[in-house]
Amino acid sequence: MIFDFFSDNPVNTVKTSALMTVESVINKALEYDPATQNAMGELAAKVLAIECTLPPLTFYAVHSETDISLFGQYEDEADTTIRGSSLSLATLAIDGQDRVSFFDTGVEVRGDHDLLRQIRKILKNLDIDWEAALAQLIGDVPAHLIGESLRTSAKWQKDAMERASSAAAEFSQEEIRLTPSKNEVEHFNGEVKHLANDVDRLAARINKLSVTLDQKSEAQKSSNTSSNKKNENS
Amino acid sequence: MADNNTAMTNDKTTHFGFKTVPVEEKASRVADVFHSVAGKYDLMNDLMSGGIHRLWKRYTIELSGARKGHRILDIAGGTGDLTANFSKIIGPTGEVVLADINDSMLKVGRDKLVDKGYASNVRYAQADAQYLPFPDNTFDCITIAFGLRNVTDKDLALRSMNRILKPGGRLLVLEFSKPTNGMLEKAYDFYSFNLLPKIGGLVANDTESYQYLAESIRMHPDQETLKGMMNEAGFVNTEYHNMTGGIVALHRGFKP
Lengths: 234, 256
Known about the structure:
The structure holds 2 protein chains of 2 kinds.
Chain A: H1 11-30, H2 34-40, E1 47-52, E2 57-63, E3 68-71, E4 80-84, H3 86-94, E5 108-111, H4 113-124, H5 130-138, H6 140-175, H7 182-233
Parallel strand pairs in A: 1-4
Antiparallel strand pairs in A: 1-2, 2-3, 4-5
Helix pairs in contact in A: 5-6
Chain B: E1 13-16, E2 19-22, H1 23-37, H2 41-49, H3 53-64, E3 71-75, H4 81-90, E4 95-100, H5 103-115, E5 122-126, E6 139-145, H6 154-164, E7 165-176, H7 182-203, H8 207-219, H9 223-232, E8 236-243, E9 248-254
Parallel strand pairs in B: 3-4, 3-6, 4-5, 6-7
Antiparallel strand pairs in B: 1-2, 7-9, 8-9
């Protein structure tokens, strides 16, 4: 019964709770990215309506100078409304491209397109200081140690991936000769390019000869015609 | 709740919880309660409701119709939960006034809001809900959350709110009410009269104030009665939404 928040529509309880939780997580994360918080000042009191078609869910993001509020209802018209499936909305949020138009994204945009561009720009530049967030919970030194070990682990993973990729390429090229080496491919590409240039030059030459032949043939025809007329007159 | 649905039992006495006290005494007694609990108010709200009071307040904001540039009055605003949210929505061109009759609550609310950076569009007023010190037709929206039951003359307060609302403006009253389910009501009564004062004693070191809270909730008008009172005060299209099985109800009415 405690979750029977609205007697006529208990689903709204879940929706409101979920929105409040997401809002709280977003705002907490924003606290650790002061640059993004400053950038949000430009969006103060702007409202973005998000209409998700699959699953069906509509909510409103009301921006303030430093954070956002997510509401299930908003009685005024939103500055910008975006409508699409959860997949297309998520893709639009994270694709990071500078878009002039949104027509090929699967997302319908109504209202102020510039607001959406501003929000996407802010999302693109999001850089949350997770170590600072962790430090609030467990203290500076442990957070730094965990941060360092995660960074080292990430670097090791990146190096390992690069080494594995390099070793696989070498095995494929040198040991089993399944694929050509980079130099071989470059040489082959150079030869193809050279051949293509030669073919182009030959084609131009043939074309020039053809034109010359055509001109000579035309001159011959006109010479024959004039001599025929002379003969007829004489 | 036979005679409980009217604020005053007669011209000279009124209710203070289950006690009957002289009218002029109620305000000071209520003030003492809130002076006592102001410091632990937010913590106690979370403890008593299991955090659900945040959902009740969120729904109040959603039904407020607040938007950019609005002027909003948060009566009995206490520690400023509603005010903080309104401040974000109305933006730099709007204004929200946090009003409370109790200076301790107002100080706690003001400190909390200023600490969180809500300053540019928030004003503060120590005001009695029965005699609101604002010109006629001033606000687009007025809210009173968990405050109306402490007001001595509720009818007078509702008329005062109606006066300062702009035509088309709305009043939202978020208040404890009457559970709609008998089983829930029994469990709620047990919780209110047995556990709640103990929690108050342990956390806020004040059993009596939380005993008063439980009693004042029972003395408060039920959903239909309050709706009728709002209509009497001049509001139209009045409606209410029960929340958590009617433990809390949100009433909304518009000034014609």
